[in-house]
Structure formats: structure tokens, C-alpha cells
């Protein structure tokens, strides 16, 4: 169930005088059963990239291969339906897309569209709601009566209800409070344990470090780097400035310590690592 | 000192549940207060109660000495500007300048006075070069600055920002925070600022932080006082700013709460 991009270019309005090239020569492989984070500043092409994962956008040239399905510029809509059954997509602020009268009906909508019978759809919806921790007493309520955090989880359940092998999320933690963010990261880990391939976009490097196996860095529509968080976040600080990204907070703090004459033996990527390194430093004195 | 807002014995029920039950809070004129709490803690509800978007079941809210009632609500709203979370839901004008003009038309400002007010407000938020731009071409942070300008043009005494940075990327968030600091420097005691947030780096900029949970006041004090209560913050679903979280894990700790810059100085060799 891996995903491969081969020489993918994408332009809006391709073939017209208004052609606006967004993605340039993307060659990436996203491994199965792993969590891959896509990072890059606003406008770097992250959202455009992930819209290729379920055929919302088709490459202008090149191909995207998801499992045994090949998507090119000429792929027909019918083929894309197969792809969409494999790929659950959670957009930015997905709570804006809730529409049904009850939470349960909203989550059942996806499975029903993919041809589930009513009782199957209900069962899948219920297990998806449990997975994202939406309490049972809310299932018959209108989604619009819920708090922002609850609405976000209901919308996620909607994408998970048809049990897709691939889950793609565009900034799933944006706007959530610390507890909601922690729950979201736990959900990502659970999805991975359940054998799914997870791709998510994030502006929060700390989230990337805590759950991602692989990181893809986008800049101006190009892949600027790809590797494990340890590889990517140990690059030179000037490189991060050049792609307009921050280090994880612990790394930023360590860089500032360095500028003030405290050199740590390596760059910490998490708070726990940073605290341990500082504590060790002090014990030596 | 003049009180900008006084909330006395407020009660509010939602869905048969007490969200506020005897809540008290007062905000001095010119203060910058960060109202923090996790999602669902009641902080946005409180803001809506203050501007009379929803009505309390009991208790009193006074704004600059005037009691909030059905008769006074319009008067009170004229003194309070609000900026909401979603930058895309707050635009009515075809251009940035039109958008700021919308509020001015509503208060029936003479049209010859409008251009100057619009220019001043856009200048204050650093968006003067975007006057003729269509709002949809702006970034999230720019949109929120225009929303802030629309509110500022009306000359409010109080501005409430309800998670105004929650939907922004790090860069957009940083520009809003800088804009708020400039605003406070420019207007000083003339402007009372209430920022509702769960971002502690944002809360750290305020003069005072009020932590609420389940409609109860949990902590109330300056940032260094509130951030020294790491356990209470964690128990209420909140985090400290990064420096605070780090300090909580150090074996040798500074005596009082230090912000990031102070902590780095404290850890540096020049301090030993």
C-alpha cells in the first residue's frame, strides 16, 4: 500500500495562458505502515501535494502510484473512486464540513456512499466514533451543538468510518488546545498501530518529532529534503532559515544556548532530551 | 482606577448544565488580560456574555460602570470590538478598505471623515499598503489584521480577541502578536485588551493571566505568577510556555519563574 510519486508536475490551468505551476518534479516514496509528515511554509505546495493522494488533483505530467492504482493526467473518474475508498482525507478545519442532523448520520455518510448497507455503515460509524473518543451520549446530537474540539473529532470519524488503509490529514491539530493536540497525536499513533499509512501536514515541528517516521520538506513546490526526523532536524541551522522553517522548540532553545556560550554535545529534538542534557551538564560541575 | 469590566456573581446555564455559577472577575481600564482555558472551559462563552451575544441567567456585568441590560446592550457593544477565530468568516467588503468602511457606515460616520479613519486603522495594523486588495488574496494573518483594523476604526475602549490566532500559521501568529504589542504601546491606558487563547506564548504577552476551567476561576495573576504554578496548569489541561515546561524538568531550578530569554541567561556561563 505504499505511495510513489514519479516525476510529478502540477499546474493549475495547465495548457492555458494562465497556467500556474505549483509542483515541480516530485519524486517521493511514502512507505506503508508509517507516519509521514509534510512540512514547509504556507504556499510551499503541501496541500497541493496531498490532494494528489486521493485524486482530487491529477498530475499534469508524471504519475502517482497508490498501491496498484496509477493516477496520471488521463485517469478516469471511475478509477479515482477506487482510490478514494482506500484513502481517507481529513481537510484543514474539517468541522466546517459537518452537515447532517446527527453526529451518527454525519459519520455514516461516507460508508453509505461507498456502498455499505445501513447497518454496516452504522457499525463502522460507531467504531470510528469510539476510536476518536466521541462519547456515546453525543451520537444523536446535532454536530453543531458540540464544542470545537468535539466537532473536529466527529469530522475525523467521518474520514475513518470507511476503514481506509491510508489516512491523510491537513494540519489536524491546528487550533486545538494542548489536551486536544495530545489526543490527536495519540490517534495518529493508534492509526499506525492499526497498520495504516498516515500522512499529515503540520506547522508544529514538535508534533512531527513526536509521531513521524519520515519527514518531507517542501519549498516552492519542490521537495527540499526527505528523511527521518533525526536526519532532517539535524541539518544546519542556516538551512532551516533558507526553507523558512523552525526547529522543534528544544532545538531552537539549544541554538540560543549555543549563541550564549553553552554548547550541548548534540542538538536535542524533544523537551525531555533537552532537559536531560542540561541536567547532565550541571551534574558535571 | 476605572474598571473596564466588572462581572459579579454571574450564572449561566447551557443545556441544563451550569457553565458559570457565581463567577466574579474585574478588569481594569487599560489592562491587557489573557483569558486562558482548554477547549470547552467557558472562555468564549464569557466573551459572548460580556458583549450581550448571549444572556446570563443571573448576576451582573458592568462595562465602564454601565450595567448590561436589554436597553444598554447597544451602547455597550459600541465600546467593545471583537475579533473572532476564523479569518474567512469576518469579511463583508470587496476590498480591504471597503471592509473597514462597513463598520463606519453602520455608525453613520460622515463620509468625508471615513478615508482618514480607514487609513489610520490600517496603518496601526501595518496593512496600509493593502487598501485596494481583495480580502481573499490575503494570508490568514493579514486577514486577521484587517479584522482588527475594522474594529479599531470604530474607536472601541475594549477589544476582545477570541482565539484570533488559533487558525494561523506560525508566521501569521507572530505578526498578530507583534501588532497587539504595538497597539498596546500606541493606545496605552485608552485601550483594554482581552485575548482569549490557549497558546501560552501569546498569554505571556499580557499584563495579567486569568485561567478558567468549568466556568470557575482557577488562577489570576501576572504571567510569572501564573506560570510558576505548573501543576495547576497541567491539571487544568494547559501547558506552560516552553521555558516553563523546561524549568519544571530541571534538577537545579531558578528561584522564580523565568521567561525564555531569562532562562537562557540563567543557564549561560556568564551567570555562573
TrEMBL record, chain A:
Highest taxon of source: Bacteria
Membrane-topology descriptor: Peripheral membrane protein
Domain ABC transporter: 3-245
GO MF, any single term: ATP hydrolysis activity
Chief location category: membrane
GO cellular component: ATP-binding cassette (ABC) transporter complex
Enzyme Commission identifier(s): 7.-.-.-
Keywords: ATP-binding, Cell membrane, Membrane, Nucleotide-binding, Translocase, Transport
UniProt KW Oxidoreductase keyword: no
Pfam families: ABC_tran
Intracellular or extracellular location(s): Cell membrane
Keyword Transport (UniProt): yes
Record NCBIfam families: ECF_ATPase_2 (TIGR04521)
Alphabetized PANTHER family for the sequence: ENERGY-COUPLING FACTOR TRANSPORTER ATP-BINDING PROTEIN ECFA2, HEAVY METAL TRANSPORTER
Similarity field: Belongs to the ABC transporter superfamily. Energy-coupling factor EcfA family.
Chain's role: ATP-binding (A) component of a common energy-coupling factor (ECF) ABC-transporter complex. Unlike classic ABC transporters this ECF transporter provides the energy necessary to transport a number of different substrates including 5-formyltetrahydrofolate, pantothenate and riboflavin. Expression of the complex plus FolT in E.coli allows 5-formyltetrahydrofolate uptake; 5-formyltetrahydrofolate is not taken up in the absence of FolT or the EcfA1A2T complex.
Subunit structure: Forms a stable energy-coupling factor (ECF) transporter complex probably composed of 2 membrane-embedded substrate-binding proteins (S component), 2 ATP-binding proteins (A component) and 2 transmembrane proteins (T component). This complex interacts with a number of substrate-specific components, including FolT, PanT and RibU for 5-formyltetrahydrofolate, pantothenate and riboflavin respectively.
Name of the protein in question: Energy-coupling factor transporter ATP-binding protein EcfA2
TrEMBL record, chain B:
Pfam families (alphabetical): ABC_tran
Keywords: ATP-binding, Cell membrane, Membrane, Nucleotide-binding, Translocase, Transport
GO terms, molecular function: ATP binding; ATP hydrolysis activity; ATPase-coupled transmembrane transporter activity
GO cellular component terms listed in the entry, alphabetical order: ATP-binding cassette (ABC) transporter complex
Membrane topology of this protein: Peripheral membrane protein
Chain coiled-coil ranges: none
Domain of life: Bacteria
Classification via InterPro entries: AAA+_ATPase, ABC_transporter-like_ATP-bd, ABC_transporter-like_CS, ABC_transpr_CbiO/EcfA_su, ECF_ABC_transporter_ATP-bd, EcfA_1, P-loop_NTPase
Residues annotated as domain ABC transporter: 5-239
Signal peptide region: none
Subcellular location: Cell membrane
Keyword Coiled coil belongs to the record: no
Record keyword Nucleotidyltransferase present: no
Family: Belongs to the ABC transporter superfamily.
Protein purpose: ATP-binding (A) component of a common energy-coupling factor (ECF) ABC-transporter complex. Unlike classic ABC transporters this ECF transporter provides the energy necessary to transport a number of different substrates including 5-formyltetrahydrofolate, pantothenate and riboflavin. Expression of the complex plus FolT in E.coli allows 5-formyltetrahydrofolate uptake; 5-formyltetrahydrofolate is not taken up in the absence of FolT or the EcfA1A2T complex.
Subunit structure: Forms a stable energy-coupling factor (ECF) transporter complex probably composed of 2 membrane-embedded substrate-binding proteins (S component), 2 ATP-binding proteins (A component) and 2 transmembrane proteins (T component). This complex interacts with a number of substrate-specific components, including FolT, PanT and RibU for 5-formyltetrahydrofolate, pantothenate and riboflavin respectively.
Entry protein name: Energy-coupling factor transporter ATPase
UniProt organism field: Leuconostoc pseudomesenteroides
Amino acid at each position: 500500500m505504499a505511495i510513489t510519486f514519479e516525476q510529478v508536475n502540477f499546474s493549475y490551468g495547465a495548457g492555458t495562458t494562465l497556467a500556474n505551476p505549483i509542483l515541480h518534479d516530485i519524486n517521493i516514496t511514502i512507505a506503508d505502515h508509517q507516519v509521514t509528515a509534510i512540512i514547509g511554509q504556507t504556499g510551499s505546495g503541501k496541500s497541493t501535494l496531498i490532494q494528489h493522494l486521493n485524486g482530487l488533483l491529477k498530475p499534469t505530467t508524471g504519475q502517482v502510484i497508490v498501491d496498484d492504482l496509477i493516477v496520471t493526467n488521463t485517469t478516469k473518474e471511475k478509477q479515482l473512486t477506487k482510490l478514494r475508498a482506500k484513502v481517507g482525507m481529513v481537510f484543514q478545519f474539517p468541522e466546517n464540513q459537518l452537515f447532517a442532523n446527527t453526529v451518527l448520520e454525519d459519520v455514516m455518510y461516507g460508508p453509505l456512499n461507498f456502498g455499505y448497507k445501513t447497518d454496516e455503515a452504522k457499525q463502522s460509524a460507531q467504531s470510528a466514533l469510539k476510536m476518536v473518543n466521541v462519547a456515546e451520549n453525543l451520537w444523536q446530537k446535532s454536530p453543531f451543538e458540540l464544542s470545537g474540539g468535539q466537532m473536529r473529532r466527529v469530522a475525523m470519524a467521518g474520514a475513518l468510518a470507511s476503514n481506509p488503509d491510508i489516512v491523510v490529514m491537513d494540519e489536524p491539530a491546528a487550533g486545538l488546545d494542548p489536551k486536544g493536540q495530545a489526543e490527536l497525536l495519540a490517534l495518529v499513533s493508534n492509526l499506525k498501530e492499526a497498520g495504516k499509512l498516515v500522512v499529515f501536514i503540520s506547522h508544529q515541528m514538535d508534533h512531527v518529532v513526536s509521531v513521524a517516521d519520515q519527514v518531507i520538506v517542501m519549498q516552492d513546490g519542490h521537495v527540499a529534503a526527505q528523511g527521518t526526523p533525526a536526519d532532517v532536524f539535524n541539518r544546519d541551522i542556516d538551512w532551516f532559515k533558507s526553507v523558512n522553517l523552525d526547529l522543534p522548540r528544544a532545538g531552537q532553545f539549544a541554538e540560543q544556548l549555543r549563541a550564549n556560550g553553552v554548547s550541548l554535545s548534540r542538538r536535542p529534538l524533544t523537551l525531555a532530551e533537552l532537559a536531560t542534557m542540561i541536567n547532565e551538564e550541571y551534574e558535571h560541575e | 482606577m476605572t474598571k473596564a469590566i466588572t462581572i459579579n456573581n454571574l450564572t449561566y446555564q447551557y443545556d441544563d448544565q451550569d457553565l458559570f455559577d457565581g463567577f466574579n472577575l474585574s478588569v481594569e481600564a487599560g489592562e491587557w488580560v489573557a483569558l486562558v482555558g482548554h477547549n470547552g472551559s467557558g472562555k468564549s462563552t464569557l466573551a459572548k456574555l460580556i458583549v450581550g451575544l448571549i444572556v446570563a441567567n443571573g448576576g451582573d456585568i458592568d462595562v465602564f460602570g454601565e450595567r448590561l441590560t436589554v436597553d444598554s446592550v447597544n451602547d455597550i457593544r459600541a465600546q467593545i470590538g471583537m475579533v473572532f477565530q476564523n479569518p474567512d468568516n469576518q469579511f463583508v467588503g470587496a476590498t480591504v478598505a471597503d471592509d473597514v468602511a462597513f463598520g463606519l457606515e453602520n455608525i453613520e460616520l460622515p463620509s468625508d471623515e471615513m478615508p482618514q479613519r480607514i487609513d489610520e486603522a490600517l496603518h496601526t495594523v501595518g496593512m496600509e499598503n493593502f487598501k485596494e486588495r481583495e480580502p481573499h488574496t490575503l494570508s490568514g494573518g493579514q486577514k486577521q489584521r484587517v479584522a482588527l483594523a475594522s474594529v479599531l476604526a470604530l474607536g472601541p475602549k475594549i477589544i476582545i480577541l477570541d482565539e484570533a490566532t488559533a487558525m494561523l500559521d506560525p508566521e501569521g501568529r507572530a505578526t498578530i502578536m507583534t501588532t497587539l504589542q504595538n497597539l498596546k504601546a500606541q493606545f496605552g491606558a485608552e485601550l483594554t485588551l482581552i485575548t482569549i487563547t490557549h497558546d501560552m506564548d501569546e498569554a505571556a504577552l499580557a499584563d495579567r493571566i486569568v485561567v478558567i476551567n468549568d466556568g470557575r476561576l482557577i488562577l489570576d495573576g501576572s504571567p510569572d505568577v501564573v506560570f510558576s504554578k505548573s501543576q495547576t496548569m497541567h491539571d487544568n489541561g494547559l501547558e506552560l510556555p516552553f521555558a516553563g515546561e523546561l524549568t519544571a524538568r530541571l534538577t537545579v531550578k531558578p528561584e522564580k519563574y523565568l521567561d525564555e530569554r531569562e532562562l537562557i541567561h540563567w543557564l549561560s556561563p556568564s551567570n555562573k
